[in-house]
């Protein structure tokens, strides 16, 4: 069976979206030219499980242009765009995903994509790796290795590596400098606000915005909130990050205190139960909560469901819950990644860098998998540097080079 998507008649709209991002992804366009000639993935089966949005579609096409046999699935039940999926199918790729899939459908789609007996996997949060180590172990002999896109996925891989459970090498794309410095910080910083603003259509200026987690994503979200004129409050569990937030000009307090004064809450920790029943009960009437971290457990919608006396959709992607105290609490996009479940995710120019890292890392894996061991490895420094160089070139920016004398000076200790 080839491709399981919602509606092939949406293909033209999807193709238009893919073409728009292609025009704005110069690094991938450069790799497209190169891969057309070199065909590095000839005869290689690649499975891509990343938010099935236009930029991911272009990455998948790039693997196919490079000679790969590609199957594509999503990485979140709410982030697949059905028109993009149709556009990819119309262009000859095999796709297994649709928007708003049930838990069972989502898993079935991942399994169908894995049915290709992949050699290389592109994972985003660890769903493919998880299946390959549990219910689809029979596919392990075909796997050379893979690449992981996000922070939580890398943490899980490291936990597997530590326990000796990992059965093939994985490259931690998230841990490349050209990933987290740009994608996690500036990408999340912009796309989370895009998701929130288009969903709520409310003003940010003057609001008390609570950002839970001051990691790479949290820093970006808080920085942009400041730009919008919000009063930004940060919650943290790490004293160094908390001190950094204070020096960046933000208030820091416990969630139990922030809950009482926040207007808008954004969790981005990768942790669970960051906002729970005790917090909801103390929130202001009309408070809005959303999540930008992995999975839908940071804002405990489960606990909110349990204490609510009434539930009513307020607007597309906004569910209101009435509590016993008469106050309403609003949840955006079911507590799933608000930038992808209620938006188009990071902008094209950002995913251009992340996906150039993915494409080059996959090529590296293909060439080196038998030397890497069952380990989580960093993106090679040359690839990280090459992506930064390509990005500067796309902007037409030139930088200085060290002279021989300067190199000598920097490496000496006597002068
Ligand atoms: P990070 O490790 O840099 O930051 C996470 C921060 O959260 C850390 O500073 C940590 O101390 C803090 N934290 C952990 N538990 C907490 C708690 N209970 N309360 C308050 N703070 C807590 O990670 P990151 O790169 O910023 O990623 C954060 C999450 O977002 C991950 O799950 C990652 O997979 C996801 N992510 C999402 C997007 C997106 O597009 N929405 C993009 C990149 C990463
Ligand atoms: N399965 C997990 C996925 C984590 S999402 C979940 O649904 O919770 C976090 C990743 O999404 C980030 O690392 C980022 O690189 C990626 N992302 C952000 N915008 C994107 C876009 N427009 N297209 C594809 N991936 C995107």
Automatic annotation (TrEMBL):
It is found in: Cytoplasm. It catalyses: S-adenosyl-L-homocysteine + H2O = L-homocysteine + adenosine. GO terms for molecular function: adenosylhomocysteinase activity. Substrate binds at residues 124, 149, 179, 183. It comes from Ruminiclostridium herbifermentans. Keywords: Cytoplasm, Hydrolase, NAD, One-carbon metabolism. HAMAP family: AdoHcyase. NAD(+) binds at residues 150-152, 184, 213-220, 236, 292-294, 339, 346. Its EC number is 3.13.2.1. One of its GO terms (cellular component) is cytosol. This is Adenosylhomocysteinase. Residues 184-345 form the S-adenosyl-L-homocysteine hydrolase NAD binding domain. SMART domains: AdoHcyase (SM00996), AdoHcyase_NAD (SM00997). GO terms for biological process: L-homocysteine biosynthetic process; one-carbon metabolic process; S-adenosylmethionine cycle. It is an enzyme of class 3 (hydrolase). Its main location: cytoplasm. Gene3D superfamilies: Adenosylhomocysteinase-like (3.40.50.1480), NAD(P)-binding Rossmann-like Domain (3.40.50.720). The keyword Lipoprotein does not apply. The gene is ahcY. Binds 1 NAD(+) per subunit. May play a key role in the regulation of the intracellular concentration of adenosylhomocysteine. Belongs to the adenosylhomocysteinase family. Pathway: Amino-acid biosynthesis; L-homocysteine biosynthesis; L-homocysteine from S-adenosyl-L-homocysteine: step 1/1. The lineage of its organism: Bacteria, Bacillati, Bacillota, Clostridia, Eubacteriales. CDD domains: SAHH. The keyword Kinase does not apply.
């Amino acid at each position: 069976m080839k491709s399981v998507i919602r509606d092939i008649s949406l293909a033209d709209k999807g193709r238009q979206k893919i073409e728009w991002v292609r025009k704005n992804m110069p690094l991938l366009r450069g790799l497209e030219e190169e891969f057309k000639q070199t065909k590095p993935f000839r005869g290689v089966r690649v499975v891509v499980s990343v938010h099935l949005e236009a930029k991911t579609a272009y990455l998948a096409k790039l693997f196919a242009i490079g000679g790969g046999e590609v199957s594509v699935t999503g990485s979140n039940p709410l982030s697949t765009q059905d028109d993009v999926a149709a556009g990819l199918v119309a262009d000859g790729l095999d796709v297994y995903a649709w928007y708003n899939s049930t838990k069972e459908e989502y898993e079935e789609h991942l399994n169908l994509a894995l049915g290709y007996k992949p050699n290389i996997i592109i994972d985003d949060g660890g769903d493919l790796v998880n299946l390959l180590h549990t219910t689809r172990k029979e596919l392990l002999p075909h796997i050379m290795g893979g690449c992981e896109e996000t922070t939580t996925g890398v943490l899980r891989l490291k936990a597997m590596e530590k326990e000796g459970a990992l059965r093939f090498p994985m490259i931690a794309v998230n841990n490349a400098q050209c990933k987290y410095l740009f994608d996690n910080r500036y990408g999340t910083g912009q796309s989370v606000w895009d998701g929130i603003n288009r969903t709520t259509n409310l003003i940010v200026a003057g609001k008390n915005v609570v950002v839970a987690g001051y990691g790479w994503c949290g820093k970006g979200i808080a920085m942009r909130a400041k730009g919008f004129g919000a009063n930004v409050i940060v919650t943290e569990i790490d004293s160094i990050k908390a001190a950094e937030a204070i020096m960046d000009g933000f208030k820091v307090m416990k969630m139990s205190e922030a809950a009482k004064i926040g207007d808008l809450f954004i969790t981005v920790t990768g942790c669970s139960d960051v906002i729970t029943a005790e917090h909801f009960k103390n929130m202001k009437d009309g408070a809005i909560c959303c999540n930008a971290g992995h999975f839908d457990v940071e804002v405990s919608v489960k606990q909110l469901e349990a204490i609510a006396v009434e539930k009513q959709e307020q607007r597309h992607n906004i569910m209101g819950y009435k509590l016993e105290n008469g106050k309403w609490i609003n949840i955006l996009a079911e507590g799933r990644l608000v930038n992808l479940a209620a938006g188009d995710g990071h902008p094209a120019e950002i995913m251009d860098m992340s996906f150039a890292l993915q494409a080059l890392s996959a090529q590296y894996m293909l060439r080196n998998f038998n030397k890497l061991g069952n380990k989580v490895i960093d993106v090679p420094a040359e690839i990280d540097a090459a992506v930064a160089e390509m990005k500067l070139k796309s902007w037409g920016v030139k930088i200085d080079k060290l002279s021989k004398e300067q190199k000598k000076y920097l490496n000496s200790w006597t002068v």
